[in-house]
Amino acid sequence: SGFYEWRGMESGRKAPYWIGMKDKAPFALAGIWKEILDQKTGELQDQFLVITCEPNAMMAELHNRMPVIIDPAEYDRWLSAGSPPVDLLHPYPAEKMTTYEIGQLINKRGYDAPDIIDPVPPVASLPKPRQNDLFG
Known about the structure:
The protein is mainly beta and about 140 residues long. About 10% of the residues lie in helices and about 30% in strands.
């Protein structure tokens, strides 16, 4: 139902963001797939590639490209084409998407739990420290 992107901050830190549909519906990324023969093992291996394009207005705030998202009405056409229909390789409408900053837990290796996509609370909503809390 979403993917991650890291936004560079002025502080030099990178903040992780969740990107998905406003209605939280699952969606499909454009990709290509190929089986190749591993020369060392003699086994067939799957290779996948996600196709990217210029960012829409929302994604441009985070990155200089975005994955191509296939509109559900075009799934059959994408999947049945012998080669990718190039007219589908364009930014998905920003007004149908949403994004928000998520916690730093995504950076912890191996962490995979539902709360990983919980939004970071806005700084304005955090309680202000009492004067005594500032100096111990």
